[in-house]
Amino acid sequence: MLSTIDLKVSKLQKELGLELQQHSSFEHTESFHEACQSWVNADTTLFVGDNLIYLKELALMSPEIVDMCYIDPPYNTGSKFLYEDNRKSEVRGMFGTHSAWMSFMLPRLVAAREILKETGIISISIDDYEQAYLKILMDRIFGEDNFIGSIVVCRSKNGKGSKKNLATNHEYLLIYGKSKQAGLRGQSDETDYNKQDEFGQYRVDGLFRKKGEASLRTDRPNMFYPLYFNPNSGKVSIEAIKGWKAVYPIDSKGVERRWLWGVDTAEKRAWQLYASKNGVIYVKNYAGNDKAEKRTKVRTLWNDTNFYTEKGTNEIKSLFGSKIFDTPKPLEYIKKIIDVCSDSNAVILDFFAGSGTTAQAVADLNGTDEGTRRCLLMESDCEIPPNHTAQESGFKLISDITEERLKLIKRETDSFNAKVVRPNTGLPLQMLTDIGDNIYSVS
Ligand SMILES: C[S@@+](CC[C@H](N)C(=O)[O-])C[C@H]1O[C@@H](n2cnc3c(N)ncnc32)[C@H](O)[C@@H]1O
After folding, report:
1. Which domains does the chain have, with CATH numbers?
2. Which of the listed residues 325, 352, 383, 396 should we mutate to test ligand 1's pocket, taking the one with most ligand atoms within 8 A of CB?
3. For the segment 312-321, what is each residue's pLDDT rounded down to a tens digit?
4. For residue 329, which atom of ligand 1 is closest to its CA?
5. pTM for the model
6. Which of 170, 222, 340, 385 is most buried, by the most CB atoms less than 10 A from its CB?
7. Measured distance CA(73)–CA(75) in Å, rounded
């Protein structure tokens, strides 16, 4: 019998004219159900095998458990990576050769949506090759109204040389909410509060003269009045004071505008105003008591050298001794995504886990802010191709790399507890104590 997920997927496949996919015939046994619930007691749970099996199981048996999902799917570059990255359709429908990749992504995104809480967020890394096709899928599955935005992320200084006219050095992060209830936590406000008075630390970045709509003197005549300022101290008063200079809300083109507040408010809150030496009046922006928690809107251009591709590669080399994974994301980049999208007690899902950067990012963030984030990873158990550095380093399956990353985290943080769920191993439910506390597999 087809599940509700299968029905939703079939409907969307027909509407989008995508190739029909075989629905998985995986048998969901009692011990499989039990293993899939085991994430509740672990900091990180790694589900080994095709993510679709687990996504469907979680979507059907425990929907709405995840606060934030981050994925970094295969970009379909056609490159020879240790994982399959060449899904091009032979039958060219509405989306040309891209429909095979879309057909692969569709059921996974439909199931992931069910696992997200109503307040949940999903953010997806992608580059130009599939960005437009991913956007279409996401608009259909999550709804155009739930598109929060797209962030452009700089990945290197000089870019890749594979194109004729351009050296691409950016990619995207597409962000959707599950519903209108979803919102970003925001980015931490790192602006320097470089001034100090008896009321606390502050910065001056907001003009007291109104700009834009309804900013003219004629719009609010009673908000056009003189202020008096001391060019040495920056203090402002509504009363004339000997030696202080008068200033009116007149802009650089000589247009008479108005102040932000009426004269009564300005009298009560004159301590909050600051004058530059040449008489530009600002409203002081105080850091507040809880400066660490002050957050601002997330900017849509991320240009941080810590997010460069080579950072991720160097991290893998220093963790594993060589480049055993082709496309790892840099740790700081994933930490930022998690931080801006979710709270410190979030349940986080990454169903294209690769080298396990997301698990490391979650563990690091918890270590920094004493958070209680939990992490669900999924990674394929496909064999690593012969002659790949990872195979030469002793890894057999791709998921072995993810698992090794969990062991490395465990080595750094003794209290870290992780589980690994493997289907079809033929083994009974068992503890594998050599990996670390609570790591087990299930048949
Ligand atoms: C671009 S990589 C992710 C890299 C990761 N963000 C990191 O920092 O290492 C995509 C990963 O998805 C995995 N993958 C692809 N198809 C999968 C599937 N059906 N089920 C589980 N994992 C899959 C690949 O094996 C690969 O490791």
Report:
1. 4-185+306-441 (3.40.50.150), 195-286 (no CATH)
2. 352
3. 999 999 999 9
4. 8
5. 0.82
6. 340
7. 6
